[in-house]
Amino acid sequence: MRYIDILFKYMFYRVAKAYMKFDGKNAITAVISVTLFEIMSLMSLVLFFENILLNTALGEHATKIPIWILIPFAIGILIFNYLKFKNKYDEYDKKWGNEYKRIKRVKGVFVVILLVAPLYYISI
Known about the structure:
The chain is an all-alpha fold. 79% of the residues lie in helices and 0% in strands.
């Protein structure tokens, strides 16, 4: 779980850095991005295990998560993430701000892939 937490922190940092001139150190765009990634990843895992356990074909999902459950759940995760990442940008900038350009580029591509990957499975 520690590595997943580091991944979320790094993802927050990179998105916050990209949107710094729009959001400032508040970094609400980064918080929303991490929250969406977490929700989409959880939904992907639920659908994946549903396909395995219920032997349903991809695209034939028996689980329909009601919107009245999903929205409060998403808002709760958003509030949790906001409180978790509040005033943390400077700390993460000290930790990851001096990365070598090549490492930064590779990790940046990895973050983009991670942000887009859950969309693929959910859309099937």
